[in-house]
Prior knowledge:
It comes from Bos indicus (Zebu). It is built from 4 helices and no strands. With 115 residues, the protein is an all-alpha fold. The chain has a domain of 53 residues. The longest helix has 28 residues.
Amino acid sequence: MGSMDAYEQVQKGPLKLKGVTELGVTKWKKKKDTDKAKLLETMGKIQKNQEEELRRHLDKLTPAQEAFEKVQEMRQMERILKKASKTHKQRVEDFNRHLDTLTEHYDIPKVSWSK
């Protein structure tokens, strides 16, 4: 039992640091809806600012420039709708049909040291 006496002076429980008052462990509180509300609010402000900038920008354009931008937007929308109309599988099939129409000149040459 002599070896047990050596362990009687060991401090049990949590360590106590000098100069630190015992306030207990405080956990960080999670931020919930306030972040989402702020994010939505800032997104709304950003969109309003972009719309205002666009209006100011359009006020400075000549009629020809305005018509040009409208046509560009229309073409871009047509491209987007055209790409969205086909599925990936349909695009792959079309590409394979295109590759089949090409001549052998465009084939990748076989590379090997032994014939």
